[in-house]
Specification:
22% of the residues lie in helices and 26% in strands. The chain is an alpha+beta fold. The protein folds into 2 domains: 43 residues; 144 residues, SRS domain (Immunoglobulin-like). The strands form 3 sheets. The protein has a 5-stranded mixed β-sheet with strand order 1-2-4-9-8, with no helix packed on it. Strands 3-11-10-5 form a 4-stranded mixed β-sheet, with no helix packed on it. Strand 1 and strand 2 form a beta hairpin. The relative contact order is 0.15. Pfam families: SAG. This is SAG-related sequence protein SRS38B. Keywords: Membrane, Transmembrane, Transmembrane helix. One of its GO terms (cellular component) is membrane.
């Protein structure tokens, strides 16, 4: 009968350990799978929310971080300021924009791109009545004055509240209006401003602003 050598216990243990697959090889696979499942879950949430007309906060922040490619109003990701941009369109139609000034969003900036100019012309404290359709008719001087003082819509000491010019490298006009929470009206108010073409004869964008 042939003899069988079983070997020492240490040799058997080492051989068993060598044939056992490393545990660490499985971990990256599990992590990768979990990451993919997480992305899939976010995609499903965003898709369902879009169908229901609701935009999740993480989607809103992502959109806010993207620069406006057309005429649009975008609130900064951290809140506080809303920037509305008016750009030229191929069809030449007036673009209607809307923004809100409130305690949580107390700064409004309007960017009139290219050769556009801000309306009303005599900005300062002037804005247009909300029902104004042709902003070129909204003027702040002369006997046919149609603009209004924005401070007439507010409360408290409004002496320092006015449109301020913002310096930018590109062409166009940029104005900023800041309203401290203490000066917000007790009831909602609205006004309009916008951008005209270089000849100041055509309204390119009308921005309707709600103060609440």
């Amino acid at each position: 009968m042939a003899s069988v050598s079983l070997g020492s216990p240490a040799v058997i243990k080492a051989a068993a350990s060598a044939s056992r697959p490393p545990v660490m090889r499985v971990v990256p696979v599990k992590l990768h799978l979990a990451f993919r499942l997480g992305l899939l879950s976010l995609l499903l949430v965003a898709t369902m929310a879009g169908l229901l007309g609701y935009q999740p906060s993480f989607v809103t922040r992502a959109v806010a971080d993207e620069p406006a490619k057309g005429s649009a109003c975008v609130m900064e990701a951290n809140g506080g300021q809303t920037t509305c941009t008016c750009v030229s369109t191929e069809d030449g139609k007036t673009k209607d924009l809307a923004a809100t000034l409130s305690a949580s969003a107390s700064v409004l900036q309007l960017v009139c791109e290219s050769t556009f100019t801000f309306a009303p012309d005599e900005a300062g404290k002037q804005v247009c009545p909300v029902e104004t359709t042709d902003l070129q008719t909204c003027v702040g001087n002369g006997g046919s004055k149609t603009s209004i003082d924005v401070t007439s819509l507010l409360t408290g000491n409004t002496e320092g509240i006015k449109w301020e010019a913002v310096t930018r490298e590109t062409q166009g006009t940029t104005k900023k209006l800041s309203i401290p929470p203490a000066n917000l009206p007790y009831t909602g108010q609205r006004f309009a401003v916008g951008c005209l073409d270089s000849g100041k004869t055509t309204t390119k964008c009308k921005l309707t602003v709600t103060i609440e």
